[in-house]
Amino acid sequence: QVQLVESGGGSVQPGGSLRLSCALSGFTLNEYAIGWFRQAPGKEREGISCLSSSDRTTYYKDSVKGRFTISRDNAKTTVYLQMNNLKPEDTGVYYCARRPKYCVTSLSLYNSWGHGTRITVSA
After folding, report:
1. Residues 117, 8: contact at Cβ < 8 Å?
2. Strand locations in the chain (E)
3. Mean pLDDT of the chain
4. Could you give the CA distance from residue 121 to residue 74 in angstroms, rounded to a whole number?
5. Average pLDDT over residues 100-122
6. Is the pLDDT confidence value at 46 over 90?
7. What is the DSSP letter of 41?
8. Does 16 score more than 90 pLDDT?
9. Residue 48 binned pLDDT confidence (cut-offs 50, 70, 90)
10. Burial class, 121, CB count within 10 angstroms (exposed 0-12 / middle 13-18 / buried 19+)
């Protein structure tokens, strides 16, 4: 059974850091891309970062470049999103999702999703 389970959310002050984890089971990471997505209050879900295991490329939304880092563990069972220098506009529910091979921008092409983990950045 394919599962993606997010964890690591919480409340943090501006400038703080969090590391999100996306625990994977039921499939081989080598064959998939894993994306991180954010849904801010009252807004549509948007792509934040993605890791393609097929070609080891990574992608970041412009607003998080230099602050967020996506990575995976050697066992290929967890994908992380290290978030530094968090800002209030980073507040939202963060989801991970998978799709075959390569990262794409269209959310509809990601076929398995986790249930999300909430992040609140406020003073």
Report:
1. yes
2. 3-7, 10-12, 18-25, 32-39, 45-52, 58-60, 68-72, 78-83, 92-100, 112-113, 117-121
3. 95
4. 30
5. 95
6. yes
7. T
8. yes
9. very high
10. buried
